[in-house]
Specification:
This protein has a domain of 85 residues. It contains six helices and no strands. Helix 3 packs across helix 4. It is elongated. It starts with 5 loop residues before the first helix and ends with a helix. The relative contact order is 0.10.
Length: 135
Amino acid sequence: MDDLTLDEALEELESAEDFLVYFGVVFDAAVVHVNRLHILQRFHNYLAQAGALPDAEATRRAVYTELLTRAYQDFVTSDALTEKVFKVFHMHEPQTSFVPLSSITLAEPVAEAKSGDCGCGGKGVCHSSEAAARG
């Protein structure tokens, strides 16, 4: 991959380990094994936050190395549950919903069932245990 441009090399990289090796980030395989997707997503998030990068390949490579190192270090000093990189980790957090009073309506009142009518539509000719218990 040494003869490829940075953009060409990035197209060839597939795993978190590939990225870390290519950018020369020293890593613990156990940390990467458990957090590989989280590290790559955090790296992606950091790149998005960085905005437009310079055109100079050497400068971009330095920025990529810095951001990938930072993403990896986030999971050396913390864990996936604490970092909450993916949306699934936010799903059980308290949710607030607003229902305006004007949207609440009363339902039509239900007619009371007559004695012996269990409500199944049998009009008093019901053989359910509920109707038998009432009778």
